[in-house]
Records
---
Amino acid sequence: MPTYTLTPTQLAAYAKLFDYRTQFVQAARQILSAGGIAAAMPGDGDQQIPRTYNSLDFAVGGADASRKIPVALGGGRYREYGRFTGTLTLMVCVPIEEVQAAGDQLTVEHLRELDRITSTARVLFMEHLEPFSATLLPNLDVQALVPIEPDERPEEAREVNTARLRWRLTFELRPNAWPSL
């Protein structure tokens, strides 16, 4: 891979652009909160989380090889990415006492609550597709927002007191968002 020499200003611009995970999770939390759905983020302490809560996280998936663009990872390290695929996980947790009382199974009431929350979340996110690309994440375009069902993990890997809904998002970097080399 070629070596790129970047000015401190260019490095700062790359770092800001690449920090989409934190920006996206914060944006998702704001949208859910505005819709009356409280959500915890990675790093929130247990004492700040209500007993029944939603948890947001965003994991990076693969990168498309269609367009290679150098991205500064910090510390003088670089990687080439074109298109990103990520997964926003909306996790609804049920208090363990309720699960134990139900015989270690999610009850019909829990599933109804999960369905209510996830359907509300879907509507909220679909309403905010353009702000995601235009305001909240000015350097990223949301190409797709598709729910993934059911939970793909093997049965033994699932947590008894947790139900999940995942949203798959594809981002494409706008060429004019990149600092010139």
---
Amino acid sequence: MKISFKADTVLALTVLFLLLFGLIMITSIGVPKSISLSAPDVLYPNCSDGKVDCYLLFKNHLVRLGIGLASFFIAFKVSIKIWKKLATPLYGIAVFLLFLILIFGRSFGTIATNWLLFFNTSFQPSELAKLALVIYLAYWLSKKQSSVESFKDGLIP
């Protein structure tokens, strides 16, 4: 029996294209911001100057992209049984981080205070909350597999 992986290939190529497109965009539009972040005290910054890092945002993005890809491959290799065990604690941690935003949230020039500073980088707990919610709902619906067909029995807690 031959199994077709056409959809997986298309999805993987689409993700790869979006990652490369993001790197190109960060490189092309991030130079002025990189200059202002790396050398705010230089009056006339130049990329050939040793103090100025014209690709600071690109380098930061590349590091975060590497962390994200490594996390993806690690999560891909984790057994479904472990994800089921982690669903509730992960959801609890996400809700706790969302409450921390109310106390320690930072705005970074916007009205919304939905960022937390974490080891010299900013972090949006809402992104983790989305992932945790999907994992928790998948776990919850897998427990109610026999009664999911009925709205009353399957989706109402």
---
Amino acid sequence: MLAAARSILELGTRLRKAAEPERRITDLETTAARRIEQLEDRLREGVEFGRREGREVGRHESGSWPRG
């Protein structure tokens, strides 16, 4: 009985270790998604600021930027 309990505890430890990389990946994905949202918000604010200031919004192959 004691051996079975020890085996279950060891299995739990192994499962936690195996799940750690997946948890890290999920954390990184969440952090990246938040950062992308922040950057998109800043881009929108910059475009709106440029329009209020009478600037055009230019385009190039990797995105857009306000022209001054």
